[in-house]
Amino acid sequence: MAHLPKFAASTEQRIAELQEELRLVEAGEHPKFLEKLREFQQKQADEIEMIDIMYEREKEEIERKFRLEHAAIQRELKEREDDLVQALLLEVDDRIRFIEAEVAVLDVAGPACPTFSMNKKCLRRRPHDTPTSSEKKKARTNAPAIIHLLPEHIIAEDVRLLVPAESIPSVVQHHKVSMENGKLIYEGKTYQRGQALVVQTENYGAFAGMILSICDQYIQFRSTVPGDTRQVLATMDDLESGRVILRKKIV
């Protein structure tokens, strides 16, 4: 029993120490708490610094890649622009040569024999006289060529609106016509520019001629008979519908 007062005193001292530690913990001033807090803050600061360093490195790497890719895109764009300019220049040169060749063909394909105007005294025809064969030929030669730039079905539709349906003749497409590599394919036969052939139209009849030019809109024919200046501009519809008929030789 002699040790009881001493044990009680040590217990009270321990309780007082624990209460003091509890007060320090509640106040946030406990030494161990402060030590752990400093360690955590230091670790947090180190991690934030590492994150900032990694962020700067990633940023620099992204900017470097962007500059390289941007420079490569600019070089590729410049090369493509140069290629496009060169292609356009070549196309313009080809077009100029084509036009010059067309002009040369038109100049060369003039009348085989030059015609000279002669002062010829002609008698006046009486009102009831019939025209001579030469006058008929001249009138037929000077007949204007009608160029149909519209497709056949559009022309037929316009005609139906103007005249009764029973008075419109039916149009039959019976000729196979196509274009391939600047050449005309007519009824399975190939025609090219400068080729001699026979052209037959309703206004001019049949005559020996040649192909002056071939394009997507029309084909131009010219008579090769000396002194004959007949020319025909025929569209694809003219050839398909039979308004203009082509043959390689006179039947």
Automatic annotation (TrEMBL):
Keywords: Nucleus, Repressor, Transcription, Transcription regulation. It is found in: Nucleus. The keyword Cell membrane does not apply. InterPro entries: Sds3 (IPR013907). One of its GO terms (cellular component) is nucleoplasm. The keyword Repressor applies. GO terms for biological process: regulation of gene expression. Its main location: nucleus. Pfam families: Sds3. This is Sds3-like protein. It comes from Necator americanus (Human hookworm). The lineage of its organism: Eukaryota, Metazoa, Ecdysozoa, Nematoda, Chromadorea.
